């Protein structure tokens, strides 16, 4: 084992639970390829999510629905090759688990065998509990996802904040408890009121990771293209931009084009 590897405590589902118990916040970010995953892991990320948001930010689809299981496995295996420390969680894509629990387990087994990832994430509550239990019997950790669940966008009709009405909030609380009781190791809450997210996080012993769910949860997750400012059009209130890669990349590429056109590149030192 290399010296660098010895310095790392690999992140496992148990480590995440300990972090919640100690009140230490959990950092989570998406990644979809080897090079970015390596940077993210070396920068100290706890959890890397190979999100089905790859459908939007990598493939340019309007929703997360088109991405396939084969494509998720391709992204996940690339990410796994880039990491030493982080826990890698992979989204089960739309259509790979909603049919029945046997299908859900078969999709999960493909992800685990073919990518080397550590866990899967699934959107939904009571309606997918049987599938979650079946996956857990195979020894695969499952992360839940409630609130705004983008695979159901055509049911919701909008990406607006979820569970603002009592009935939906009560269902979310009920579902979160069911997910914990079924054995999920963590739960993502997306775009719900901060007060509701706080109630859920206090009510559960498993870590709750928020995206647009306020500060009173056990960790935060963002889509890397959004927080690095690659997308300029996506500006929800919850998003903090940590860089302006749109500006940096555009300016670098323009500079390169100009250098090629003007024959400035390559110069004498940049040739054999
Ligand atoms: O696919 C994804 O990136 C996600 C996060 C938004 C939590 O599910």
Describe the overall structure.
The chain is of the alpha/beta class and 272 residues long. It has helices at residues 3-7, 13-22, 34-42, 54-57, 69-80, 101-115, 129-137, 153-156, 166-182, 194-203, 224-227, 245-261, and strands at 26-30, 47-50, 87-91, 119-123, 142-147, 186-190, 208-211, 219-222. Helix 5 (69-80) runs parallel beside helix 6. The model has no long low-confidence stretch (mean pLDDT 96). Residues 30, 49, 51-53, 91, 188, 190, 211, 221, 223 line the site of 3-methyl-2-oxobutanoic acid.
List keywords for this structure.
272 residues, 12 helices, globular, TIM Barrel, alpha/beta
Topology:
Layout (H helix, E strand, L loop, with lengths): L2 H5 L5 H10 L3 E5 L3 H9 L4 E4 L3 H4 L11 H12 L6 E5 L9 H15 L3 E5 L5 H9 L4 E6 L5 H4 L9 H17 L3 E5 L3 H10 L4 E4 L7 E4 L1 H4 L17 H17 L11
